[in-house]
Amino acid sequence: PESFRDVLQEYASRTKKIRDLVLRSIAELLEIDEDYFVNQISNKASGFARFNYYPPCPRPDLVLGLRPHSDGGLLTILFNDDNVGGLQIQRDGRWYNVPTKPHTLLINLADCLEIMNNGIFRSPFHRVVTNVEKDRLSLAVFYAVDAETMLEPAPGLLDDKRPSRYRKMLAKDFVAGLFEHFRQGKRFIDTLKI
Ligand SMILES: O=C(O)CCC(=O)C(=O)O
Ligand SMILES: [Fe+2]
Predict the structure, then answer these.
(1) Whose CA is nearest to atom 8 of ligand 1?
(2) Structural domain for 170, as ranges
(3) ipTM
C-alpha cells in the first residue's frame, strides 16, 4: 500500500500553500503589507494534523463530539466528512450548523490571527455535536506561529482611533493557558481583551 507518511506530507505541503495564500489575502483586505502575517511564521513554527473520529452516539442530547472552543493557532485547515454534519459555530449566543460540502476545505481563522489583526476578523467559537446513526471523520491541520513569537496586533492596523484590543503575550504563554480554559469551556483569548 501507499505510504501514509508520504500522503500526509504531500497533504501538508499543499495545505501550507493554501495557508500562505489565505494569510496574504487577509493582509491585502486589511490593507497592510501582503507578507505581514506570513512573515510572522518562522521555520520553527509548528503545524500538526489531528484526525478526529466521532462514533455514533446513542445520546446526542447529552454528549458532545468536541466541546466548545476556538482554535489556538493562526489558521486551521479542516477536511470534513462529505456526508455527516456535526460542526457548529456560535454567533450571538446561538449555534449554527456548518453545512457539509464534498471536496471542500474549511479554513478556520484561529486565535493568534485574531490578535494579530486586532479583532477585525474573529476566531469563531465552535463545537461538534454527535448523532445516533453515523460515525464521522475529520482531519484538522493546525498552523501556528513559533513559541517565541510575540502575539500583538499588526502595527499597521493601529492608530489613535484604533488602539490595540488585546494585551501582548508570547505565543508559548498563550498556548500554555489554552487547555485549562478549554477544559472549563472558556476562551483564553477573552482574558487578553482590553
Ligand atoms: O471535527 C470537526 O469538524 C472540527 C474539529 C475541530 O474543531 C478541531 O479539531 O479543533
Ligand atoms: Fe477546532
Answers:
(1) 140
(2) 2-192
(3) 0.98
